[in-house]
# Entry
Amino acid sequence: AWSRGDERAIARAFAEDKDLTPRLREVLLRQRNANWTTWLKERLATPGTVFVAVGAGHLAGPTSVQRMLAAEGIRVDRIWPARARKKSRN
# Structure
């Protein structure tokens, strides 16, 4: 779903995951995303390059990292692989 850019499918998969109790969802997704958002905002204010890798579940849904960053006024752009860019032009 992520390689297709289908954030809804990712969010749906996590919403349907019965192993993710409301408490686990709060800790593993919302709180972790909020912590990353704070760290990324601070890190982006300093010189240099940083690489961040996260699981797809952190990049979909209402508490996704990129939505939290956008709420802080930070623009987030998805970078598509070359093969996906070629398909989207046709």
